[in-house]
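ugh finaly. both done.
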Amino acid sequence: MADDVLELIDGHPFRDALKNAVEIRWSGLLRAVKDSRQVGVVVMKDGHIAWAVSNSQTENFGSFLERIGMVPREKLTEVVHKYRSLGKSKKLGALLEEAGLLSRCTLRECLKAHVSAALSSLMADPGVLLEARHGEMAIDASHVFLLGEVFPEDENRRASLVTGELERSVGAESREESPCGPESAFLQELSSAPGYLYSLVADTGGRIHSLHQSDGIRVETDRVVAAVCDWLDASYRLCPATGLGAPRFTLLTCEQGSIFVQVVDADCERFVALVCDGTARTGVVMHKITEVVSAIRENSGRL
């Protein structure tokens, strides 16, 4: 490819370079670099996004699928073992599809969510530049995306994403200083649940409305809220494709144990999350959360 074409990508800020790569219908690898260190990768085919990953992501695609409840851990372990035994010559997503664990449509939506998270984190850092690398790669044409699919240019949506990131960047200590509203008292009622560590009410924009924690407990609100928001986003976008009803309750895993999540409102914008250690009793926790959600709904006037 001519040097003048590469100049549209190499050394430019991530956002501008990626748009240029789309316009020239780039195929190949794009290295995201900051301070001479690779911080991410974007794979493209004829100007479409086939894959993206960022160093800021705390989990790989397989772990992401497990966390949002798409693939059970034991089944994922089996497929990952096969993936490695094949020398990674076949994509993990293709193996999951072959095993009947994900439909093609569901796999595409999950890939889109993971790629979108990677691009958002890279575009948010003005110090990230792109470098273009030649070479054709084996890509499934049904799993490539337009840039607008994985990073919409809608200003309102971008603003809400930025607001969510800013809210999540606030330390847990500052949140504890201003837990407002009656929800705080309701959360305190959850503290009698077996294995209770802490609980919170938050929205899908990443804003925490209320927080309660046991004494001396290390709070991981940033990661918990981000994980739940990812799960809700993926789940509700997948509902029409899978024909399943909108999920109202889920159980996720985390380093400290389990995260019990219950959606609060009809618009699926606000949720209660309760983090417990390994001694939690699912039935008891679910019952307590149901009581708290009812109280919050009645008090706030939300349906």
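ok and the 2nd:
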Amino acid sequence: MNEKALIRLDGISKSFDEQVVLDNISLNIRKNEFLTLLGPSGCGKTTMLRILGGFEKPDAGRVLHGKQDIVDIPPYKRNINTVFQRYALFPHLNVYENIAFGLNIKKMEKTKIRIKVKKALKQVNLDGFEKRSVSQLSGGQQQRVAIARAIVNEPEILLLDEPLSSLDLKLRQEMQYELKTLQKELGITFVYVTHDQEEALTMSDTVVVMNNGTIQQMGKPEAIYNEPINAFVADFIGESNIYQGTMKKDKELELFGHMFECVDTGFAENESVDVVIRPEDVRLYKIHSKEYAREGGMLVGQVTDCIFKGVHYETCVDTYGYEWVVQNTKNFIPGEHVNIEVDPYDIHIMKKQSEADADES
């Protein structure tokens, strides 16, 4: 995979005030890939982006662009551009002048600048906005100007540091699709930083989930969501029911004192594990009394709450003192007794978090 990498982080570490922010990170970024760094605040994702852009130097490790280590190369000499969270547009310049700013600094010929700026404006759907003041633009339009200013330089890699965070929900969702479409049309590599799992799952070819300065898991969005490697990833990527269980032997799980069939293997007998079950994978069936469980039902619980969320109901169920969150299309009434059923392949078993963390270090 190394030979296909456009840029490679090799053993990157970084600390601030003796606090480790990045801990021996290695990562391949491929050509034409939309890669997202996803994680909570303080996980190290923005520091990694700044190291890629040349705005920070690592304490250890290399940033390889091809075979060249670019750690000591300043940002303006890298074929990498950055779209910052707050756009950093010049309020005293109009749209054209903002986009052309970097080209003017390079003393490019005026006719060539005009051609490149018009092309960039067309790419971000801002034809005819050349003379508009940036202060007269909406948040989404300002973001497009910032992107146009970055792509007009024809970089190999575009870094985006939470560029949608200041937009309202509807516009943010629209811009997710626009960014993904733009990336495909431009044919350049996007490295995107966010703490929003919906953005990561919607736009990315590859998602890199980070926590405490380390990579917890990376892969395609579907794989990250459907097969989380540990409880942190499962909890951070979407909603999850996470419980402590015991693998009695391969494919046999003990949970809440009951035996469940699952499909996981490779655990020791009687090994303590984390059990993850997604809310949408749980089925509920109403029963008249907890003494009359549905034949084949796995557990019996009592509904404590049911909230309409638009496309589904979110139902909370108490069983043996543990809460289940279930997403389905039925409206259950608090106080009702229900059967809880889950298919074996929807029960995800993983090593305890402490063991997974030890493996990462």
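summary for the 2nd one i guess: The CA atoms of residues 251 and 317 lie 26 Å apart.
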